[in-house]
Amino acid sequence: MIIGIDANEANVERKVGISEYAFQLLMQFSSSKFKAQSLTPPAGGSKFIIYLKNKPLSNLPVPDKNWEYRVLKPGKFWTQWRLPLDLYLHQPRPDVFFTTSHYAPRFSPVPTVVSVMDLSYLYFPGMFKASDLMQLRHWTAYSVKKAKRVITISKSSKFDIIKEYKIPEEKVVVVHPGIKPAVNLNLHVYNMDTIKAKFGISNNFILFVGTLQPRKNIIRLIEAFSKVCRDEKVPPDLQLVIVGKKGWLYEEILKKPKELDIEEKVKFLDFVSDDELVLLYQNAICFILPSLYEGFGLPVLEAMKYGCPVITSNVSSLPEAGGEAAVYVDPLSVDDIAEKICKVVIHPEIRKELKEKSKVQLAKFSWEKTAKETLKVLEEIGDK
Q1: Residue 42, helix vs strand vs coil
Q2: Average pLDDT rounded to a whole number, residues 20-29
Q3: What whole-number distance in Å separates Cα of residue 103 and Cα of residue 115?
């Protein structure tokens, strides 16, 4: 079987979110266990043709007889005409075409499977540029309608896709994302004392990781943290460390600590290295993600992986990610967020229990499992 993949999301330098998802799938598909055998009869293995706008970066899989790159120029309106043209004219054609983004080829002789992470562009349109929003709305709509299958990463997102696009339930398949193995750092090179000195972090801090944007609910988090700081039972040097790049409408977020007179207690770290982030997870009292909406919430599992107790929202897909290993908050209630932070910070026995439960939760997720379940969908469509 020949499987075509639009892998442009994986062909970027800094991989987060959908780019990390696409990259991890490629790495799994390129391994010998996936190329050598088929998961569904008839056996015989799969050949992968990877379609890109630009030449593959050095960290993508090396090409071989079962792994081919097709770089198609020009890149403008690539899924609208350049990719469809190649699928019609170039032989041999794939038996199935998989796009790791929302956008399927506009016209195609090949049955298509698309992946849709979430519908944040419908529920939080103010976060997006007008041009991006128009593209997301219209291009995703036609992609979902014409696709043979839609892969999404949570039951919550599946429900949203069925409701918004009025498509049959059996057309949408949930395949949870995986999680990378924990990194073992060389503590002679990387240590928390260095990180504390570099960023001005105290001995006691809670951690948030995510893009600075309204959907992440950071303003309510800061307001809740200001209440926590007034509790005599919490450490007097407690800080809130916010790691993440500036996204959309972030100005009010940056102003909020000064307005609440806790400017010295809130640290905004625009960028940290992967190794520094590991140390922050390992040394934080807890991790908090009080988002209003998430397609899945991988940072929840990232925190658990490094033994960091998790507080997160009780909405959208986050209970799927956290399972029984997280403390849940009402993201619209500043008082509830503050109460749960105090509860976890003050009581070490709660943190210990969360760490133990997180080991069970983490065992449910792996990129190999994600790739196997995705490949099964592709082969079922390609065999028809």
Answers
A1: coil
A2: 94
A3: 8
The answer to whether 316 and 293 are in contact (CB under 8 A) is: yes
Residue 41 scores a pLDDT above 50: no
Among candidate residues 14, 94, 20, the one with its CA nearest the CA of residue 51:
94
Q: Are 209 and 331 in contact (CB under 8 A)?
A: no
**Residues making up the chain, counted from first to last:** 384
Number of Cβ within a 10 Å radius of residue 352: 11
The DSSP output letter for 273 is: -
Contact 70, 85 (CB under 8 A): no
Q: What is the pLDDT of residue 33?
A: 66
Smallest CA-to-CA distance from 256 within 226, 296, 282, 283 is with: 226
At which residue do the structure tokens 């809740």 appear? 224
Region 345-370: what's the mean pLDDT? Answer: 96
* Interval 207-230: pLDDT, tens: 999 989 888 999 999 999 999 999
Tokens coding 6: 């639009």
Inter-CA distances, 158 with 20, 144, 171, 263, 344, Å: 20, 12, 10, 40, 32
The 3-state DSSP class for residue 54 equals coil
Number of helical H runs and strand E runs in the chain: 15, 13
Closest CA to 174 of 191, 195, 189, 159: 159
Domains, the chain, ordered by start = 2-178+366-382 (3.40.50.2000), 192-362 (3.40.50.2000)
How confident is the model over 47-95, as pLDDT tens digits?
999 999 999 999 999 999 999 999 999 988 899 999 999 999 999 999 9
Residue 200 is predicted with a pLDDT of: 94
How are beta strands 96-99 and 2-6 bridged, if at all?
Answer: parallel
